Amino acid sequence: MYLFSMGVAVLASLAIIVVGVTYIVAPRAASTGFGLPLPEAGPHIRWWLSLKGVRDIVSGLVLLALVAWASPLMVGIVLLVAAMTPVGDMAIVLAAKGSAKHAFGMHGVTAAVMIAGAMPLVLRMA
Question: How many domains does the structure of the chain reveal?
Fold first, then answer.
């Protein structure tokens, strides 16, 4: 289970880094997979989406740093806390009557996998 959990942590880290890079390189294309339509068009939309990209990249790097230098318990705790991001994303998409397919299929599944990966690390060390 340890390898599974650490694999989930690394995979989640790399995946959110890729998402973040996509938001910086091709923000409009990246936003189509989130489950909500873009707000009104304007010259600053690209910059707002790029902000999301920077934050996603940093989130992934923080988790990778923990995998490299922290205890398994700390990795599990942070992975569990970080799972609240896709839970929140799912809730926001559903509340906005966005795509339920994206809400559950992307955000919900991501949260479930992160929680499944975190639990063995947290419970093992408890």
Answer: 1
